[in-house]
Amino acid sequence: MTKQRKILIRNALLFTGSPHEKAHISHLLIGTDGIIEKISRREIPVGDDVRVMDAAGHWVTPGFIDTHTHYDAEVIVAPGLEESARHGVTTVVLGNCSVSAIYNSPEDTADSFTRVEAIPNDIMLPLLKAHKTWHTPREWKAYIQSRPLGINVASFIGHSDIRMRAMGIARSLQEGVKPTPAEKKQMATLLEDALDEGFLGLSTMDNPWDKMDGERYWSHKTPSYYASWKERRGLIRILRRRRAILQGAPNLVTRINAAQYMRVSTGILRPPLKTTMIAMMDLIGDRYIFPIVRTAARAVNTLFNADFRMQSPPGPFTVYYDGVDSVMFEEFPSGEALRHLSRELDKRNRLINTPAYRARFKKEIKRKFAPKVWHKDFSRCYVIAAPDKSLVGKSFAEIADEQNAHPVDSFLDLVVTYNDQLRWTTTIANDRKDKYRILYNYPYNIISFSDAGAHLRNMAFYDFPLQMIKHVWDSHAAGRPIMPLEQCIWRLTGELADWFGIDRGHLREGKAADLVILNPAHFDRITEEVHFAPIPAFGDYRRLVNRHPGVVSTVMVSGRIIFQDDRFADGYGSTWGPGRFLPRQGDKYTSSLSPKGINKNSWK
Fold first, then answer.
1. What is the pLDDT of residue 75?
2. Domain 64-316+435-503+583-602: which topology?
């Protein structure tokens, strides 16, 4: 990497990361230390030793923040995290959904991650065996900071991670087994140690879909699932005292315990606990969930002094699957049986061809009022690849009509015939774009839910900030603005930084120059298309990615240009990287986020 020079960005339309400061044409001078020295609406005179970049016609925004990723494995061997960086994301949060790669052995860690997050076990396990030398948050942090980290990283500590370490993996996965007082004390110590090192808080999981991989405990739920809320009380007391964050997912089958996350966030006669839960979406299968969640979150925040936030993806939630390689099948018993036998195809196929099994599958599929994330509507599920090319482009319902068969029979027959060579897609949520006005303006959620680094063949939301910007931009062009552009940028930058206690998300003098230069002339190139691209560090394993050439002109982290003109800087992520571990500001941080700045009339 060449010696850093001062950089002057001239004539940019500047979005500072505040919802209240109108975007304006400005000039930014960035020092050799990566700190913004001056922001001015007047020309800033500089010498010949300063690199000058003319950003006329372009936007300059703070670097985007992705608060829900699973890059815990990828950051070890590909610390550039290029798929997020190329879309202007300059800070990511790891350790979500109860799984982190800190305390346990490579085998235990891989088994807790790979099935639920759809990361191949035969990639992650050898990776951890080759590289994992740490066993504490401090050692992990030292390792991460020794790598050529491309963008900034913050992290939760996973509840499954500390429960496995304290109880041992076998006891942590047994229904009804409670930790001993000594094991509870150890879990508390493990959490305190992580918070001492600047971790954001604790991530938990109550969703029974999340299953263990590996030969030893296949199809057990992940350890966090087996922990009662009574068991968690001591950990929650620590989070509340330390002003740390609880991140979690409720039971997505019954959804009842979502109320537990709201309850622990309340601040009646005690400080509120910063709590965030996935995910608020306009589900096709359960339209009533969207208004219920909005009403409940508003009530708990306004009536019970909570600091509770949902998480929301900003666009259509479209997924792609190979055969039945989908966590969606875990939400009903006959689908769960298919997933359990995915390693024993002969047994699975015999089960599929059993008339009683098919009858049960059909009955469960058509249950109208059963809670569901997947709509289970085969007319909305389309084949995109199969050995029989005549199937491509057709829904399973259309195929069934041609065969004069029930859609379930057609689907299951194709699974038996082609297994994972049958690739299909469906959108499960956020299909009604007229609802984005509500979603984007709702004050009690966080627009940040990508799962980046996980579900490598199933979805690609690395570009979620650009998708939201495009929808808001289009609404202005149509004469019906969803929200001011300044507020849109704030929701993707400053709001996230402030709520999570991360020292980023704003462009101010004296702050790190983490920024993005966007070309609005190319916003029409932001589409929902996905593509396959190899991950060299994963043996060229192919994952789904997003590509929008020319939209992101430049990405800087701490004043270093990491991405420009659709290519990464030489040596980025391999020999150098300006990213760093960002500790939480929690013990000193008081939430400044409130619904002010949000147009409440747009979500009532």
1. 98
2. TIM Barrel (3.20.20)
